[in-house]
Amino acid sequence: MKAGVPADTIAPTRRELLIFTIAGLLAGCGHVAVGAASPIPGAAALLQRARSGGALRVSVLGSTRNNFFTNGGVELFDCAAQGRIDAFFLGGGQIDGEGNVNLVGTGSYPSTEVRWPGSFGSAYLYFLVPRVILFREEHTRRVLVEKVDFISAPGTSEKGIYRPGGPHALLTNLALFDYDRIRHRFRLRSVHPGHGVEEVLDNTGFAFDRPDDVPQTPLPDLEMLALIRGRIRDEIGEVYPNFVETAFHRGLDR
Amino acid sequence: MSEDHIRGLDDLAAAIADGAKLAVPADYSGPAMAATRALIRRGAKHLHLVCVPVSGLQAELLIGAGAVDVIETSAVTLGEYGAAPRFVDAVRRGKITLKDATCPAIHAALEAAAKGLPFMPLRGIIGSDLLTHRGDWKVIENPFTAGDPIVALPAIRPDVALFHAPLADREGNVFIGRHRELMTMAHAARQSFVTVEEISKTSLFEDERLAAGVIPALYISAVVEAKSGAWPLGLWNAYGEDKAFLRRYVALAKTDEGFAEVLTRWPDEPAMAAE
């Protein structure tokens, strides 16, 4: 991966950049859990584990090799309630400007026009895991809405509700936002290469804060790309065989 | 085992009454799919399906076959293969009653039943629309600390827990390894019906290393041997899911006609994927 490699193979794919960016959000964590339907967060957690020299514990739902739980499906949730999980990931059919997440559907519940799988563990883990990273590849006004149609898990809670956890960041195909827990708003941290602030504004349905100069999301270096395309690809392929066929550099997914 | 007359999959399906509250594990945790086919074959109706804590193809097929009235689940999805088309269609048409939940709530409610308790408190949930729509979930005050509201979930006591496991013995002890949610399901349910890959001639309690992962026959009503009993889904550490089948299923089940084709060919013909 050094001299003589064509530039085409050096540039990260969109998904490789997302994996690298999420890994950066996990710095300093001791235990990261990865839930259902989360190949990119899973790859990111495994990347951060590799970068930490194995110090980070990672449990991937559905994995045999990367799942050390022995007390069944409940152990992840018990662990979270004890404060033993530092970071977790949530997606969302809709995510709104206050960090509310909708995993159920659009329109009027229960006969929703569009029905998504359901809330999974969100209504619990969002309250208990300190660093919940919201992740959704699609960055459009139909996903990033002013107000969700159904609150699977609320971004904030009233005073008096037990809530050590909550939203930490939001990552999409276009940009990375931080979540401000005092103002209950997102703040744009960086925009991915090839995209601009105007594009982010045009495609976001909620208002957000931003600095005067918005930096570009940092890219992985060659060593990191080699790690992602080698060991991490193999490790996440155990759980997501279809995903690894397309997400990594093969000229298929640009 | 209390139900000695159950010798095959059709006996087992007949013993699960119409209207039963039926608990099943997630697709990745030992789904009894051969038994599910038998349930569809016998035309089971009005089931109250409790997914522990989510389901996929198993709930999807039962819903598509018209066997389900009520579904209590934290999600239904075919994972990497996409949305569950018959589930989505049934929701849109209002054909099933939804009891949307969150994963730890289903685990906790089963644990309550396993302990013989009326309810279990659980953190989180307050402020979620799940709570708005679940009239059976209540917010109570922590009796020990003022000003600490917490959700109380009524116990879930299934009539039947149904799952597939690699191994049982002739007394009806069932090996589930570290898949402890199957243990909780069996503790919580009135009856547990289990299909297994293999029945051991020696007692599973003879090996202390196995014993900790064994559900005692006390909780098990019937065990039926079913080779590849989780097919077309996988069984942990034994075999993977049948990708070709699942891809084809998702394509077919998008329409009523396509799903009807699956139902007519598949319940009696486990070799459909071999084509």
CATH class of the largest domain in chain B: Alpha Beta
Mean pLDDT of chain B: 94
Helix tally of chain A equals: 8
Give helix and strand order of chain A, one letter per element, not per position.
Answer: HHEHEHEEEEEHEEEEEHHH
CA(first)-CA(last) distance of chain B = 39 Å
Query: Which stretches of chain A are poorly predicted, pLDDT < 50 over at least 5 residues?
Result: 1-7
> SS-based structural class of chain A?
alpha/beta
Question: Structural class given helices, strands, pairing of chain B?
Answer: alpha/beta
Tell me the Rg of chain B in angstroms: 19 Å
CATH topology of the largest domain in chain B: Glutaconate Coenzyme A-transferase
In DSSP terms (H or I, runs of 4 or more residues), the helix count of chain B works out at 10
- CA radius of gyration of chain A is 18 Å
Brief overview, please?
The complex is a heterodimer of chains A (254) and B (275). Chain A is built from eight helices and twelve strands. Chain A has helices at residues 7-10, 14-25, 39-51, 74-81, 122-128, 197-202, 222-237, 241-247, and strands spanning 31-34, 57-60, 87-90, 94-96, 101-102, 105-106, 114-115, 131-135, 144-145, 167-171, 175-180, 185-191.
Which helices and strands appear, and what pairs or packs with what?
The complex is a heterodimer of chains A (254) and B (275).
Chain A: H1 7-10, H2 14-25, E1 31-34, H3 39-51, E2 57-60, H4 74-81, E3 87-90, E4 94-96, E5 101-102, E6 105-106, E7 114-115, H5 122-128, E8 131-135, E9 144-145, E10 167-171, E11 175-180, E12 185-191, H6 197-202, H7 222-237, H8 241-247
Parallel strand pairs in A: 1-2, 3-8, 4-9, 8-10
Antiparallel strand pairs in A: 4-5, 6-7, 10-11, 11-12
Chain B: H1 9-15, E1 21-25, H2 33-41, E2 47-52, H3 57-64, E3 68-73, H4 85-92, E4 97-100, H5 103-114, E5 119-122, H6 129-133, E6 138-141, E7 149-154, E8 160-169, E9 174-175, H7 180-188, E10 191-200, H8 208-211, E11 214-215, E12 222-225, H9 243-252, H10 256-265
